[in-house]
Amino acid sequence: MRIKLPLNWLSANAAGNVFGGYQASLADPIAAIGCLHLFPGYRIATKKLELEFLRVGNSDLILHFDFSEDMRKLIRHELDTQQRSTPCFDMSYVREDGKVCTHIRNTVAIRPKGYVSHLERGGMHAED
Hints:
single chain, 128 residues, alpha+beta, Thiol Ester Dehydrase, Chain A, 5-stranded antiparallel beta sheet, elongated
């Protein structure tokens, strides 16, 4: 999947580059939406989003997201055997000159419908 994030008056920071918050906002739901389409019937949400800014985003940016068949198989196996999966997807923003400006790691929590984590119940558990 490729999604364009335009550099314009609304998305530019004070230096005239694409604001990091805009990059995060677009990248946040993409992996979860992909999982939702492939694995309906589960509670799916972004668990962790990490952005590493390598270069300035001084042009329109293209978000590159690929959902490999191997990742699909791994998630399906984990759901079939453990009823949950927490896959991590690598994405990137690429500038018009072809250089990667931002690397993104997006971790998604895929849980059974009705699942409530210990944190939501007021406790802590390392796996939630």
